[in-house]
Amino acid sequence: MTTQQTIRLILLVVSWAALIVRSRAVLSARQRPMWLALLALAIEIALLQRPVAEVVTRASGVPNLDAFIGGFCHVAMMTILWTVASTSPSGPPSRRGSRFRFWFTTLTVVTMLVSEVVSTLIAESTRHRALPVTVARSVITIGWLAYLLFVAVASVDCTRRLWRHQKATRFGALRLAITLLCIGTTASVVYVVGRTVTIVDGSHPGSPSALLVMYASSTYFLCFVFGCAIVVVAPIVAGARAWWQRCRLFHLWHSLTEAVPGVVLEQSPSIGRDLLRTRRNAVRLQRRVIEIRDAAITLREWITPEQFATVTAEVAASGLSGMEASATVTARCLALGRRAKLAGEERSTDVPDIATSGGADLDSELRWLTAVRDAYRAAAPPPSGDRRAPAMDGEGLA
């Protein structure tokens, strides 16, 4: 088995595995396009396997049918990718652009279909992969020109648009997927150049232009398959990430909401039970962040300005700075407020300005809460002037 055949077999396994694992994506309007794009790729790659191509040709009796079907699958994949890349988060896609893509794709498909049917009916001589023997006086050449023109236009525009999406995307997995798709569309342009040369000069496998086509096609297949597969399985990755982040905040959440149970919408009495909750992870993570923030806002009312000043001074004296210092101050104050509330003490008449929020978006808030959690679980000793210090001696904060 050659290196190219090995790569194609690996891509076949990866693409079909992702399709099967994420088969439910067909039911989602947002996830369906990329799932269908990956399906088109998977069919195209399957047709590149020699046993599959032989079965298709033998069963149909039509020479090069595997190459024809593979070409239409590639057009379908590029059309979906082009449409997805043309969407804008700020609003609906341009009607003019949508009409151009529709009619350009339709004209390409009709031209390819007519040229391939006529070429088959007149039993036109072709080379491997349905390439024309000579570029002149060959019906199949018209289909190839339409196909290559479509791939070139779609790839160039996709590269430009995907690059903009890549710069605006924050989720790491999606950034990687879009980067791979950008590389794939760039390789498609190189493929068009190499394939045009092979059609014009009639070069055969082993020639420089044929090698360029082989390397370019291998590159875009690798990038397209893994890029689409990442997009398709990204919800699973995001869900697992949200589940892990939610579980990491369990001890901080459980400790604070024990003192302020009214903010909790869904009880989770143990970390074991929390770990077993694997559905609606994104919603549960957002809810946990909100409940921690609400509990923190409430517990501030049991901290006096004097205690806050003492904690701030001690943290500053310890050499901490930036987010670590602010998170440590917040963690110690929340521990003091929790103790006071559970002990039934009176609220403070003057609530100090303790930081309870880490940013405007979920990612920054999670970074902040992780720092607070680390400081909270460290069970730092209470300030020396704390009126509740004896009650906290020898007992962890979490």
TrEMBL record:
Residues spanning the membrane: 6-22, 67-88, 100-123, 135-156, 176-194, 214-238
Which Pfam families does the UniProt entry name for this protein?
DUF6545
> Which UniProt keywords are present, listed alphabetically?
Membrane, Transmembrane, Transmembrane helix
DUF6545 domain: which residues? 243-377
Q: Which domain of life is it from?
A: Bacteria
Q: Where is this region: Disordered?
A: 378-398
| InterPro entries with a match to the protein in the record | DUF6545, MAB_1171c-like
Q: Tell whether Transmembrane helix is among the UniProt keywords.
A: yes
Name-wise, this protein is DUF6545 domain-containing protein
